[in-house]
Amino acid sequence: MDLELAEVADAVLFDELGIAVVAADGGQLEALRAAAAAPDVAVLSVEPELVHHALDSEDTVAEIARPANGAAATEDAEHFLDTPEFTWGLQATRTTSSACSGRGVRIAVLDTGLDLTHPDFHGRTITAQSFIPGAAPQDGHGHGTHCVGTACGPATVGGTRRYGVAHEADIFVGKVLSDQGSGVDGGILAGIEWAIANGCQIVSMSLGADVASVSVAYETVGQRALAAGVLIVAAAGNNANRAAGRPGLVGVPANSPSIMAVAAVDPDLGLANFSAASNPVVGGQIDVAAPGVRVFSTVPMPVRYGSKNGTSMATPHVAGIAALWCEKTGRTGRDLWSLLTQHSRRLALPSLDVGAGLIQASG
Length: 363
Fold this sequence. Notes:
single chain; 16 strands; Rossmann fold; seven-stranded parallel sheet; alpha/beta; three-stranded antiparallel sheet; 25% helix; globular
């Protein structure tokens, strides 16, 4: 796609996704809505273009949300710690005992890009593309580099612990959020189409908009992706404040029935204070949970490493683990989704908050 031309065009059509992004005045908008209401016109829905944001959290105070009785089941009464060898997240998800590496699997991380100068990714197969007009795929924010590190970071790094899940996966970096951490539907949809066209089996999106209703556009995309053997995982959202009694809700695009919504847990396997609860709309439920508090991973140089909180940090854990299962079983799309939920670890928390439970790596 020629992004400069797309930026000034009246409409951009994504053939593979069945979606168009259109600049329309009032009269044109009414005509489009009338077409969507007509029985003989192939327009499913007309929706406003949304602005999405990177979903990390500054919440470091009230990190734990306990069940109503204040207790955890005996099997979950444990505490994970980063060690010199592994992050707590890799331990909790059993990634440390997996014989798989993601070899032969392509993961697309659609985010703020990647620090392409980062030494931890030297020698890896990386394909990078920007969908932010006028911007290169280089990460000027930090969020994308952190997410890529968790999903695909190396198995061994001199001087620090292992933090990456699928350490031999092929990395596809789509910059769909600006260096200010935001992006619109047009760029995100372009990134998804690019990932599908490049044969990526997994798409990781740690982004979202706090909109309760399901987007027909993203649900259409999710269905087409699954049919093509592509699993899209997305951050549930950080709009909760559990300590203050506000559960929040899963927003767009994670609330789409065909996109896997990921919640965040902490090192005690308690629910993160910021992690959004299931949304009562069809498809708005949490599907799985993953480590999302004090997650250690890569950040742009010269700092090199850092810890972040957010459902954004949980999502690339799921993407990386999906790659391990894909490598082991050859399953993709809906079959891969089923495999991930079937093997998740049940937690002493409501399914409205954590879905099938804590994601677990293949053996």
